Amino acid sequence: MSLEKRPVTRFELLMDAGTGAQKAGDILLGAFVGMGQYVYVEPMIPAEISPPARSRPALSGVIIRLADFDITNIGNDTDLILAAHEIVLDRRLDDNEFNPDAKILLDMGDQEANPDSYEMVLKRCTKLGISVIPFDVDPESQTIVKELGGRGQNLHYLGMLSYIYNMDEEIVQSQIIKTFGKKLKEDIMAKNLTLYHNGYRLAKEKVFFRVDVKTHKREGEQILIDGNTSMSMGLIDAGIKLFSGYPITPASSIMHTLAKNFPAYGGVVHQAEDEIAAIGCAVGSYYAGMPAVTATSGPGLSLKQEFIGFATVAEIPLILIDVQRAGPSTGMPTKTEQSDLLAALCGSHGDYTKIIISVSNVIDCFYAPHLARYLTEKLRVPVFILSDFQTANSYKVVAKFPLAQMHNVDDIPDFVFDRFHMKRLTGPIQMVRTQQTSPGTEGGMRRITGLNTDENGKVNYFADNHQRSHMVRNEKIHHVRRALTVPEMFGKDMNEILIVGWGATRGAIEEAISLCEKNGVPASGMHFRVVYPLPLMLKDIFAKYKKVMTVEGTYGDTLKPSSLALLLRSETLKDIHPLIAEATGRPVRPRIIMQKIQEVLK
Amino acid sequence: MTADTASKPAPVPITIKELNTENPRWCAGCGDFGIIMGLKRFIVDRQLAPSQTVNVSGIGCSGRAPNYFNTYGVHSIHGRPIPIALGVALARPDLNLFVHAGDGDALSIGGNHLIHGINKNFKCVFLLYDNEMYALTKNQTSPTTRRDHPTNTQPQGTYLNPLNPITMALGLGASFVASTADWMPDHLTNTMKTAFDHPGFAFVHISQRCPHYDPNNFDHKNSNWFSFLKHPNGIDPDRRLADKSEIVEHDPSNLAQAFQYGAAEHKYFGLFFQNKSKLRYDDILHNLVGKAVKKDPSKILDSFLV
To answer: Does the interface ipTM go beyond 0.85?
Structure first.
């Protein structure tokens, strides 16, 4: 038996939907954190609730990246896959995310009934050059799983993984009890624990390797949180008092979290009859002086567009969270993408003004609402927060965030501006209408409308006046332009190539540049958290690099620049193409970024 | 927050003049003049503070109404005044809330919101300006246009029978359904009063003349084609028209009878139905917040500690 020491590794548990792969992942995560390793977890969630077992759409699982250093993304390739049967394995192999020397633990339990299918997949593995370690769940465990009505298999696999990743058997056991403790009856719990220990023993007897990732003792309080939950708690801390939404994957969990937590902090959760009503209610609430937010994903963003333009013209603050998924149309609801940038930028009709903030990790998710609230109340223009499936659902352990407990927008701490690479707004900000009172204010009666108005709020169709309204609205955005500082940069400030991304790709870019530096590849990186407007010094920065290319989770090719490339070209007149513009539904990988850079620099 | 909707009296008595803003941009003889005058009379009668009053509308001729009240107002987008009004009601339950929507607004593009506004039963007065056509977009068939009436989109004559807003509202479980008309000022103002005092979503259907595109639709000079519904718990018949039209006793708690009057060929004005004890969504949400055990906002992340 070999104990292999690794600074970083990645493994996956693949099962049928509804059989507890993600629950097993949660337990592992808790245990790893308890032991002091750094973990980044990405669940793989099918778009359907219960697709037929042993079918390709049923693939449900968890990818866990484990390291002895702080990691910012799900990484490159998988070193080990534990698959419940050959179908989920076959499906996942299609994604081509495994290392050439990856190992596969394949449960052979279904082989007898499906010999041909097993043979085919095993042949595929041989062809790909990856080694398969077949195993059978021991007879006692099989009986228990039958008694539990097919449940508990995940605990058995959990046991195997605990052994392989050199985990303390007792720490994992206490994590299982902590996770299920109150929900399971004593005898059921005992059975689950037996399954766990049997799995651990099975791996000890049958698997001839173990992987060890160094542990660290971390200072200060640590929290374990995913992107959507972090954003929900950030909304509370930013002083938002009304959430208005309509169920849509992958934004719904924000509504779930707030439905549970918001009332205790004085907040209202409204589940609207449709996406349009959801944004309408947020607009009504903010108009009446109560900070409000709506959250959605691509299809909902399309439906909300008319209201976004209305909020712009009526000068009503508006915060809209878009947790992007693969589009267009219904697309792939549980796969990640960054393809809504242009819909946010240009989706509503007419020349409406907007600000677009993006998030790249759980910390950004927490503070984006603070900045969004500050900007929308100061400028009275819509502010988008663009998240995505990957950022929303990935878990990470981080030092507990300092809270802002914002009552009004001037309470916003400086470190929030620093995080988003901008300064506090200064100077007077002109509005289209001089008066901006909320209902209930004595003597401040006024009407707002989507029609063009003069500075007194009177409907006005005259040429000069309409031009003035546009100037005033755009000047609000210019205030932000001028407040933006140099975006986050990785690597040298002069180089052969600069790769640029926004939102979710940050971690992959950061890691890719550090890989490049280790390998002597002359590349630097840049990342935007505020994606629109863009800072004024971009052209000067870009001038220091021979090539500027983007890394984006959306489609682009040599004839069609992807969204960010398009935007950067128009802002800087530089011939910017995508280095990676992939709409695969999978996160961008650091190693692939480096490979592509090497190809380009050849 | 409490769901106290009692209106604060204005500090100085307000008059119609103070409620006016500019000359409405409606055609001469438009029924909308009568409707906003009816509401202004009610605001003056009740001395509702303009600063505590919000009018919310959609798009169309009726959508302009809030611009002509010196109160707070939102002239929003087509079909969507109800979601905005709900946002206002959730944020500021103390304000007086009036929603103005045309037949296209309420029954066509915004139909979904009407269904759910009625079901959520949040506190507001909902005024349906029904001129039985699209007017501002220049004479198209609407959900309530009578069959065979020619329009620009169905020039051979409107193809289908109109929707019936009264039975529709009753069928959706509305807690308050009343009907009035722009040319009966006394009845209109009394309807506003009863609707305003209703604890929930008060659905008020208003027959509205459009002299420009359909001058012969409502025969406002004759009163033999309609009847008033009357009851101690209802709305008094219009003073000026009472002796010229039939008056029918109708108990507004009688839903089955309300359906019969609502579905009849003959037209009825008055209070069809009222149920003061229907669940209110706005109250429920406010109570959730009001009764929640408050948590310390300095500890919001503590449950995520590892």
So the answer is: yes
